[in-house]
What does this fold into?
Amino acid sequence: MKKIIFRFLIFTLLLIFGFITYLSTIGIKTDVFNDQISKEVKKIDNQLELDLDKISIILDPFKFKLMLKTVGANLKNRNKLIKLESIKSNIDIKTFINKKFSLSELDITTRTIEIKNLISFIRSIKDSPQIYILEKFVKKGYLIADINLKFDQEGNIKDDFIIKGFVKDGEVKPLKKINLSKISLIFNLQNNKFEFKDINLSYDNNDLTFPELNIKKQKNKFLVSGKNNSKNLVLDNKKINQLLNIDFYNLKIKSAEFDLSNTFSFKINNKYKIDDFKIDSLVNLKNSKVVSSKNLKEFFPESKDIIELSDHQIQIEYKENLLSIIGNGNILIQKEKDNIKYNFSKSKKNLKFNTSLEIKKNPFHLNFLNYEKNQDNKLKIVILGVKNLLSNEINFKNISIKEKNNKFEIQNLSLSKKYKIKSLSKVDLSYFDNDLLKNDASIKKRDKDYLLKSNSFNATKIIDDLLKDDKNPESKKIFSKNFKLNIKIKEAFLDKDHPIEDLGGYLTFNNSEVTDANLAGDFSDNQRINLTIRSTSNEKITTLYSDIAKPFVNRYKFIKGFEEGNLNFHSIKQNNVSNSKLIIDNFKVQEVPALAKLLTLASLQGIADLLTGEGIRFTDFEMKFSNKNDLMRIEELYAIGPAISLLMEGYIESDDLVSLRGTMVPATTINRTISSIPLLGDILVGKKVGEGVFGVSFKIKGPPNKLKTTVNPVKTLTPRFITRTLEKIKKN
It folds into this structure.
């Protein structure tokens, strides 16, 4: 009997062991728990409907739990179907025995499902701001996910849920004009932490790579951090404006091609406002095209409409409202590439900048200083300053231009918001100009005024600017304040051959215009030059006297030879109209093309030969003219000399049209006329055929480069011509 009982016990134990082993390894399938699991799921949300196949049950004898698994389940959420690959859960055997069935944990593996459906599913289970943000941004995409949910004793989901998986063919739109597509990534979502890895996406046909992106909850904010590595990015003008949404200091970028590597972080509050943005970037700018400013022509004569940047290494750092940009690379402004380095630092109040440009073979001009860079020399421009972003005023702490032995330097140049000069502390100039003349000068501020001191200075441009009427006077208004410039120059040049010693005096500027001036100096042999300007409320009077006229007359290209003579100029300007008188005495001219053609047409070859030889002498030259805007009206131009005399009038309209008419008479005819005053009638008419022809009338008209000259013989001189000739002869 004992053996029977023992064998029964052994058999029972083996049977129990075998049953436990079977349950622990193979398990059983049943639908007994289907309704109960569905009811537990409905505790999460009443809208959830779970369609289950038979459930596989496997025993975990060590944890005293039953592991439940089903394959091919369907989850319906508000009429949206989500196909699941599998569902797993554990049931405590004690609760099962006590008929207190409840889920402690639920593992769900999905099939390929739409992201938006999954987001809606998650929000129905456990809503949160980060899930809401995802739902707003996500437009499409597919994913496969493993979802782990843990429940408390009352069937509520605990905060330590975990959702893992990967995304493919995603599309999000975080901003109105920015669309990100072809998104693929691996994700790990937890209650207070979102992790994204191996992110690949496309923006405007550019492939972007983010090795990692993390979102963590910190109190009532979410910290977003990540890395980005992208190659061969190309952006056009439209996309650049969408991203920047600003006209960066009038800098219009047309395109950019670059590689990008950066780390970044920022915080999002519960109102979805971004703050504490930080970024460290390294940009390899392969090529970029920028619209050129028209003003560049003044300095870079061969500048193009488009500036090209290439091979730039740029470091960008943004932290606590401070933006730092440091970079260098090639820049193509003209025909050859140059090198540029830059350092920008921007805060809420200021923009600090430090830029250097090295020009190699390209030209560079400072026309207002009569300077041009030697093509074989390198030239370096350094600009250091700060812009006040509140007032929009700019202070250039230092501007320097260096080329071998040539140097230009400006210190503390302050500009108003309209880019007018407010003040400067010092200017140093030391260079050879286009006339190969040495210029050595300095300008220093003294109280409200300035002092120009120089050992040697070419004053050609200064005199030119003072004498000519500006076509666009508003463009010359570069000063925002009135001041007085005192001048002391030991040797000033009007040209190479006519230096002025001890040129001194002053220029007074009001509204960027010289309103008062007194400059005086000496040529050699005690010959004087003096310039004065006096202004009242309604008129401006300019006078210029020079014992040597040549350096002023030689400025006119149509006169290739001019010798001797003195010059006296007087002008009154009222209501933007200048009425002027120019007198030159005792001079001769050579190689004047317009006059030579006129003499040839008048069959005065002998006088024409003089013109190309030793020159034609004039004892008197007087011109009365007026200027208004682009129009010069010559009221009377009179010249008398031993060979010929001229009387002329007309107008010159800018550089477009010349219209002149007048009378030219050989001096022999004039002398005969004067000596025969009592018989003037006979002389004017003539006793024989041909004797009464005094000279020619002429017309010169057309564009400056295509002038047409016509002549007609005249027998009768106008009373005006005779009167003016008599006046001059009597004077002499």
Q: What stands out?
A: Residues 245-249, 674-693 have pLDDT under 50 and may be disordered.
